[in-house]
Design a protein that fits this description.
Shape: elongated
Structural class: alpha+beta
Order of helices and strands: EHEEHEHHEHHHEHHEEEHEEHEEEEEEE
Oligomer: single chain
Domain MACPF: 14-344
Strand content: 25-35%
Pfam families: DUF5648 (PF18885), MACPF (PF01823)
Helix content: 10-25%
Organism: Solitalea canadensis (strain ATCC 29591 / DSM 3403 / JCM 21819 / LMG 8368 / NBRC 15130 / NCIMB 12057 / USAM 9D)
Protein name: MAC/perforin domain-containing protein
Number of helices: 11
Signal peptide: 1-16
Largest sheet: 9 strands, antiparallel
Number of strands: 18
Length: 470
Amino acid sequence: MKKALLLFFSVSILMASCKQEIISPNSEDEMKTGRSDDKTVHSAGDGKWDLLGYGYDLTGDFPNSSYAKSAIVDIEKLKIDHPTTVELATTQSSFAINETGETSEDFLRKITNRKTLNEGTENLYKGAIDNNFSNENKWSSKYVYGSYTQYISKRRLYMMGNVNLLKEYLKTQFISDVKSLTPSEIVRIYGTHILLDINLGGKIEIIYQAETSSSTRSLAASSGTEVAFTKIFGVSGYNTFEGSSSLAKSNYNQTVIARTIGGAFEKTIKGITINSDGQPSETINISGWSSGITDSNLKLITINNVIPLYELITDPIKKSQVQSYITQYFKAHQVSLTTDVVYIFENSARKDYALSTNINLPQIYQGWINNNAAFKTYSYNPSVAQPIYSYVNNKTGDHAYTTTKITLADWVAEGIPFYAYNTQVSGTVPVYQFYNSANTSHYYSTNRNATSGYTGWAFEGVCFYALPLN
């Protein structure tokens, strides 16, 4: 769900798709060159050209000075020789951007598309989730994600020179490093791209993670993001959000990172939880924050234009090597949704069985116990799997599951508890359905002989396909 008062981002980038070096997402951090600036964190606000001409890692967090790398272009010399190619514009604008996704993958894809970055990749800024949420299953398809950011822009810096011109104004250290360092070391020190057009100022921002029982996942995420932002910072959003606070109540297991960047003070709080009443476990008092944004404390808040790092490498062999490495680097930082365990729960009083990914179901509904872990599948992933529909018989209490919607007397739809496959694909196993007419009860298992030795159970065939536990 995207609503914005102002969008800055316009970038056109070409990424080649060639293979040379397979890397893991963290391998660049393990490389050491002995350079004194290996861990330099660059800050805007020097009163001149700030981070213009610096490198940046687009796999990291949303635009943030912490992900700026070392200087690549000598902006001062370029400005002297070609005054019109480098510009500084004073801006006095405020705007807000909200983005939500049905999953982490969907969320980052929308962020990437909004910035019109074409990297041969569907999602950038993986670090926005990876670095800010500690739960091991953060990539589970059960989570919706959202972000809401209010910006105050004070300054825009940009350069308009073509690549050939910029090659004449490269920093001496960059030229030396390109000759002597490996592609992975170059990317670690200089990032993946060069900043050509940026905005400086301040921003307050949250990134939101939650599970939801709503069928309109993006709307629920948007509503939850709005409520969290308002409660944590004590302010109202600039936009009129779709959805309402009542829709936010369909969200649970809510976690937020909130932060202020630039301005009179900077603060980041991770792991803020939101209770069922929409109240956060922590808040941030931003009184005086916006009025305290001055030239001395401006920070990078938006990236408007970049070019790939390798475009400024003159040696064709080294350029190809770095280009290939960056292609693999982006592939290694792609989001891949993870599956969840589906449990089978038993209600002995009702002689009923139910399937759910929520291991805490017995704490929510009385009379249920966790029978065992049954299989793995996606909580939500319509791009690769099909919805599994849950029905309950309002006379017998029996639960049944199907890959198609049904309309039968006494059966009431309960929604979509998870997604699976209606045909067998590589790596999946059958989930069999059994029925006991005496108990009017259905049972599900990946074991064809699960009911052997138990009286009254009839085998009814394959219900759907899912992933095995191991």
